[in-house]
Design brief:
The complex is a heterodimer of chains A (about 260) and B (about 325). Chain A has a single domain, classed as HUPs (Rossmann fold), CATH 3.40.50. Chain A is about 30% helix and about 25% strand. Chain A has helices at about 40-55, 70-80, 95-110, 130-135, 190-195, 215, 245-260; strands spanning about 1-5, 10, 35, 55-65, 80-85, 115-120, 140-150, 155-160, 165-170, 175-180, 200-205, 225-230, 240. In chain A, the strands form two sheets. Chain A has a nine-stranded mixed sheet with strand order 9-8-7-10-6-1-4-5-11, sandwiched between helices. In chain A, strands 2-3 form a two-stranded antiparallel sheet. In chain A, strand 8 (about 155-160) and strand 9 (about 165-170) form a beta hairpin. Chain B is of the alpha/beta class. Chain B has two domains: about 1-175, 3-Layer(aba) Sandwich (Rossmann fold), CATH 3.40.50.620; about 200-325, Rossmann fold, CATH 3.40.50. Chain B has eight helices and 18 strands. In chain B, strands 7-11-6-1-4-5-12 form a seven-stranded parallel sheet, sandwiched between helices. Chain B has a five-stranded parallel sheet with strand order 15-14-16-17-18. A three-stranded antiparallel sheet of chain B has the order 8-9-10. In chain B, helix 3 (about 70-85) crosses helix 4 (about 100-110) and helix 5 (about 220-230) runs parallel beside helix 8. The chains are: A alpha/beta (about 260), B alpha/beta (about 325). Chains A and B meet through helix 4, strand 7, strand 8, strand 9 and strand 12 of A and helix 4, strand 7, strand 9, strand 10 and strand 13 of B. The structure holds flavin-adenine dinucleotide and adenosine monophosphate. Adenosine monophosphate binds near residues 8, 99, 128 and 129 of chain A.
């Protein structure tokens, strides 16, 4: 089984106070810690498990700058066999359609049975690139997978619907599947493991190598353009309880008592 | 101009996101002097088309057993033809498990620009603009979509308030379409959620933990608080994904919707998919280290503090109180 996994290197923002950058079109990224997109971590794990069971190779691909190598190295340390980074200053990396086009050009030249992507990216959250890429490659896709099983030349996938409901679908290979969190338990890799993976090569590819032009991968070829980002105006801001932990605890109890909760 | 809304239905019910989109659609139709079309594919759906006629100028209906279950492959083939014929300036699809399976490949195949997961939309002078969230809801973005004669947008569920329909739309039944391309995907069955031992939807008090709990070993701390309060432990999705609590404890779009008397959120950031499942709780108190965590936009009371400093003291104080009163 030849498996390709698309991965994105994203900033961890859950616990950070974010600021808008000078352009007003993105957040200030300096000082943020970057790592593999959470959904992609599950996708890489799923690919490696399939390889361990059925044999084959896992190739991880990203479109991004050199910084993204740390994410690719992490995937190699987990058990991916090859890593490719498409990198070029002319790429408008904020447009998901462009990323899908570049990935499809890259993958078209490669052998594969299965492509995995995350269900969505944690920064932009478009949930677009997986199925868009499948369409560009003219292969079927299944999104939001919670379970994957192989049956001859097809795959049985449990898709997550709303409210805890799932549906089971069968899809012919080659196919693209987008992975939902919780499908497996991603393995942990040690610093030592990542260090060992330093020796593995990361192949870099430019848009010229892919035969793409600047108009195709720049602003002109984009579908969407962020005009402004902002911190949301507060609709119903909480009343803040301040003081020492002791005082806070007493005030919480007062509030819930006054509401008749206890 | 024409607008088009795709009806989402499952297991006999039109899903609420449909009416939300039709409400937005009516607003845009009035402003741009457009006709609002809606399309439903399914089996035995005449009664649904009649309901929908109150919400749109035209209901296009394809009643065919091949559409008994959602299948994005089939939908894509049929919708491509409809969009080519109707030529809507905007097609709206729910940003749901169905919509995310359908919209991207449909847009790519038609070469119509798509913008996903929109909270709001506007068309002015033929230009589509949208509002979205990024970074788990901490940041909002305003976007322009490349100027086009036709756009597709997926709309986040639960954001727009659906209003009642008072139109008398025309129902147009379309003939069963030819499916020319091979369908490589097949629906097999639904799997219903397992019935667990606790029902968080019937609890008056929920203590809900999120990724801020950090380690499985810390869960008893929150469990003890829940027990002392006479409540039940619930959680955000990552806690279930890690296998620390069973799926029946999960609150949110892919979990349960709850409305307890008290929802105490500990170390939960307040991502939309979580909030949609708990925002109607009677009293929400959130403890989070980050003063800008989106959870504070829905909480009535907020505590910006390390949960590990608050939880043990709170548990102790409630125990004392209960001793006194008993
Ligand atoms: C299709 C789909 C469906 C989904 N369905 C659901 C769903 O049903 N339910 C759901 O919950 N999510 C769902 N999600 C996931 C959702 O988008 C978020 O990723 C998730 O809700 C985040 O959980 P969290 O708040 O626990 O974690 P995080 O976002 O990582 O937040 C952790 C928070 O803890 C705080 N914190 C850390 N340490 C401490 C401390 N010591 N004291 C106090 N605070 C601390 C941090 O400041 C942060 O705000 C879904 C996503 C998708 C794509
Ligand atoms: N720059 C990128 N390089 C490679 N894959 C990506 C990139 N951005 C997104 N992806 C893949 O596409 C998925 C969905 O991303 P998105 O459509 O942005 O929500 C991610 O989970 C990744 O698997």
């Amino acid at each position: 089984m030849e498996i390709i996994v698309c991965v994105k290197h994203v900033p961890e923002t859950a616990e950070v106070e974010l600021k808008i950058d000078k352009t007003g079109r993105d957040i200030e990224k300096s000082g943020l810690v970057f790592d593999i997109n959470e959904w992609d971590d599950y996708a890489v794990e799923e690919a490696i498990r399939i390889k361990e069971k059925l044999g084959g190779n896992v190739t991880v691909i990203t479109v991004g700058s050199e910084d993204a190598d740390s994410t690719l190295r992490k995937c190699l340390a987990k058990g991916a066999d090859k890593a490719i980074r498409i990198t070029d200053k002319r790429i408008n990396t904020s447009d998901p359609y462009i990323i899908a086009k570049i990935l499809s050009k890259t993958i078209k030249e490669m052998p594969f049975d299965l492509i995995l992507t995350g269900a969505q990216s944690s920064d932009d959250g478009y949930a677009f690139i997986g199925p868009a890429l499948a369409e560009l490659l003219d292969i079927p896709h299944v999104t939001l997978a919670k379970k994957i099983e192989f049956k001859d030349r097809s795959v049985i996938v449990n898709r997550e619907l709303e409210g805890g409901l799932e549906e089971v679908v069968e899809v012919e290979l080659p196919a693209l599947i987008t992975i939902q969190t919780g499908i497996n338990e991603p393995r942990y890799v040690s610093i030592m493991g990542i260090r060992k993976a330093m020796k593995k090569e990361i192949k870099t590819v430019s848009i010229d190598d892919l035969g793409l032009s600047e108009t195709e991968v720049g602003i002109e070829g984009s579908w969407i353009h962020v005009s402004e980002v902002y911190i949301p105006s507060i609709e119903r801001r909480a009343e803040f309880i301040r003081g020492t932990p002791e005082e806070v605890a007493s005030k919480i109890i007062e509030i819930i008592k006054s509401r008749g909760v206890i | 101009m024409e607008l088009l809304v795709l009806v989402e239905h499952r297991r006999g019910e039109i899903r609420e996101v449909t009416f939300e989109m039709l409400t937005k659609g009516r607003e845009i139709a009035q402003k741009t002097n457009s006709r609002l079309n809606t399309i439903i594919l399914g089996k035995n759906i005449r009664d649904k088309a009649e309901v929908l006629a109150r919400y749109a100028d035209r209901v296009l209906m394809i009643d065919d057993e091949r559409f008994e279950f959602f299948n994005s492959d089939l939908y894509q083939q049929v919708l491509s033809n409809i969009i080519r014929e109707v030529k809507p300036i905007l097609t709206m699809i729910g940003h749901t498990s169905y919509g995310v399976d359908l919209a991207p490949s449909l847009a790519v195949s038609l070469n119509i620009p798509l913008i996903t997961d929109c909270l709001d939309l506007d068309i002015q002078d033929g230009q589509l603009t949208a509002v979205r969230q990024m970074y788990g809801g901490k940041i909002y973005a305003r976007l322009n979509v490349r100027k086009s004669e036709s756009y597709i947008a997926t709309i986040r569920q639960g954001v727009i308030t659906a209003s009642e329909g008072n139109l008398k739309g025309e129902i147009i039944e379309l003939p069963p379409p030819d499916i020319v391309e091979p369908v490589k995907k097949k629906f097999i069955e639904y799997v219903l959620p397992k019935i667990g031992e606790v029902d968080i939807t019937s609890a008056d008090i929920l203590v809900a933990i999120g990724r801020g709990i950090k380690d499985q070993a810390n869960i008893p701390l929150a469990e003890e608080l829940a027990k002392t309060l006479g409540g039940v432990l619930a959680c955000s999705r990552p806690i279930v994904d890690k296998g620390w609590l069973p799926p029946d404890r999960q609150v949110g779009s892919s979990g349960k919707t709850v409305k307890p008397k008290l929802y105490l959120a500990l170390g939960i950031s307040g991502a939309f998919q979580h909030v949609i499942g708990m925002k109607n709780s009677q009293l929400i108190i959130a403890v989070n280290k980050d003063p800008n965590a989106p959870i504070f936009n829905v909480a009535h009371y907020g505590v910006v503090e390390d949960l590990f400093k608050i939880v043990p003291i709170l548990t102790e104080k409630i125990k004392e109180l209960k001793k006194k009163t008993s």
